[in-house]
């Protein structure tokens, strides 16, 4: 069998080379800040403060910053609080969003269009931050981790994506199950959710990243430092220079340099878990978003 190779013109080859070079440079620009933080976290504090310019590797390889980070009880406590929010929060959020999306995806729901209009309205207008906080206070949801879960159980954008995905499932499947005697709960858990694994993985990723990165409402409603999630602890270290418990035994003249490496190590410790989880969900990401964004 004869195959013909299409000869590319000089212009096409030049464009490809320029495109590859541009994308490579752009990737390095995006990647370098992450590498800088990692290199700085493994550097010797004294050598790091004396260095200027690009950092292409650790300056005097040292684990001291990580040792001090993990000796800080607030870091471990913040991890435990964040893991609680992730496990409980994501489970409740995905479940409540799935139930609401299933109801709104059925054809015979009364006032479905009106409900969707009212739900979509909340994406553009809200009561404001102060009324929201006063509601939390009246409901006794301040100074508790459940106050970071219950008010945020359903995200409108995620609900719309999941509803569109459920609407694309053939109606004949649910009708056949209902003929066999299955109720709506059985249809949801036995048919709709198993057929929506890709979009559910996207929901887990969206909600999980949102909880992992959230700090504003946690810093607003939590007063007990024992309840701080990891990002609030990180904010406290980075912005308020709360390094007293992590620089014990360090002279006053060296505390600033030691604090710099500790801050970088804290950033790595706080961001590495979500970076490790993301590649395992990435294969579902594109497919799930497209399923939820395009209705057949």
Question: What this model shows, in words?
Answer:
Helices cover 69% and strands 0% of the residues. With 296 residues, it is an all-alpha fold. It has a single domain, classed as Orthogonal Bundle (MetI-like fold), CATH 1.10.3720.10. α12 packs across α13.
Please name the defining characteristics of this protein:
296 residues, mainly alpha, MetI-like fold, 69% helix, 0% strand
What is the gist of this entry?
Helix content is 69%, strand content 0%.
* Helical content class: 55-70%
Could you spell the SSE succession in H and E letters? Answer: HHHHHHHHHHHHH
Question: What is the count of helical runs?
Answer: 13
General form: flat
Total E-strand runs:
0
Ordered list of secondary-structure elements with their pairings:
Blueprint: H1 10-41, H2 45-50, H3 64-71, H4 73-105, H5 112-121, H6 129-138, H7 156-167, H8 171-179, H9 184-192, H10 197-213, H11 216-221, H12 230-240, H13 252-293
Helix pairs in contact: 1-13, 3-13, 4-7, 4-10, 4-12, 7-10, 7-13, 8-9, 10-13, 12-13
């Amino acid at each position: 069998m004869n195959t013909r190779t299409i000869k590319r013109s000089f212009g096409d080859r030049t464009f490809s080379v320029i495109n590859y070079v541009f994308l490579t440079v752009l990737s390095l620009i995006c990647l370098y800040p992450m590498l800088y933080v990692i290199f700085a976290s493994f550097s010797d504090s004294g050598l790091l403060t004396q260095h200027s310019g690009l950092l292409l590797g650790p300056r005097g390889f040292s684990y001291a910053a990580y040792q001090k980070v993990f000796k800080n009880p607030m870091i471990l406590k913040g991890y435990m609080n964040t893991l609680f929010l992730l496990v409980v929060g994501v489970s409740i959020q995905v479940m409540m969003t799935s139930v609401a999306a299933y109801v709104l995806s059925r054809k015979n729901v009364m006032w479905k269009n009106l409900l969707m209009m009212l739900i979509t309205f909340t994406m553009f207008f809200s009561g404001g931050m102060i009324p929201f906080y006063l509601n939390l206070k009246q409901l006794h949801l301040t100074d508790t981790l459940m106050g970071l879960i219950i008010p945020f159980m359903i995200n409108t954008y995620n609900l719309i994506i999941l509803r569109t995905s459920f609407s694309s499932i053939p109606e004949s499947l649910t009708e056949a199950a209902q003929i066999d005697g299955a109720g709506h709960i059985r249809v949801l858990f036995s048919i709709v959710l198993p057929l929506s694994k890709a979009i559910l993985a996207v929901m887990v990723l969206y909600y999980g990243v949102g909880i992992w990165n959230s700090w504003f409402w946690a810093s607003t409603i939590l007063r007990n430092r024992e309840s701080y999630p990891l990002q609030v602890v990180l904010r406290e270290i980075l912005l308020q220079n709360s390094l007293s418990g992590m620089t014990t035994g360090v002279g006053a003249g060296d505390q600033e340099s030691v604090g710099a490496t500790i801050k970088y190590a804290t950033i790595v410790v706080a961001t590495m878990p979500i970076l490790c989880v993301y590649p395992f969900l990435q294969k579902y990401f594109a497919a799930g978003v497209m399923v939820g964004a395009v209705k057949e």
